[in-house]
């Protein structure tokens, strides 16, 4: 009879240890599953770009600069973060006090890596190593 009781106690203990072990493993697996998503949020890509400002083709060296931004930001957002500017409906009219002049036909236009822009600043998503040249000039 004592042997049956001992055997029963041993089986109960094994069952308890096994059940507790499974719960801990499940909890460990669940917490491990959260780590990659947390890392993704923390590892948002950062890009670097150069912004060159010109007036009638002359570089305004005091306000041209290299900038960093989060991947997926558009050019207008990056300009707003780095410059004092006036924009309306996605079009920039004043950058650091340099204002376009409709009477003289002088407007802020930009190129991307040497190519004329085909979209407004609010629609252009910046890419790493872009060189943006803004020129205040007539056309």
Strand content: 25-35%
- The percent of residues in helical segments reads 25-40%
Task: Report the order of strands and helices.
Answer: HEEEHEEEEEE
Radius of gyration: 31 Å
Q: How many extended strands?
A: 9
Question: Which structural class do the helices and strands define?
Answer: alpha+beta
Strand count, sense and barrel status of the largest sheet are: 6 strands, mixed
Query: Averaged pLDDT, please?
Result: 82
List segments where confidence is low: pLDDT < 50 over at least 5 consecutive residues: 22-32
What does this structure look like?
By secondary structure, this protein is of the alpha+beta class. It is built from two helices and nine strands, in the order αβββαββββββ. It has helices spanning 2-42, 75-82; strands at residues 46-55, 58-59, 65-70, 85-88, 91-95, 98-99, 106-112, 115-116, 130-138. Strands 1, 2, 3, 7, 8 and 9 form a six-stranded mixed beta sheet that branches. Strands 4-5-6 form a three-stranded antiparallel beta sheet, with helices on one face. A hairpin with a 2-residue loop joins β7 (106-112) and β8 (115-116). It is globular, with a radius of gyration of 31 Å.
Concise overview:
This protein is α+β, with helices and mostly antiparallel strands.
Please specify the SSE layout and strand pairing.
Layout: H1 2-42, E1 46-55, E2 58-59, E3 65-70, H2 75-82, E4 85-88, E5 91-95, E6 98-99, E7 106-112, E8 115-116, E9 130-138
Parallel strand pairs: 1-9
Antiparallel strand pairs: 1-2, 1-3, 4-5, 5-6, 7-8, 7-9
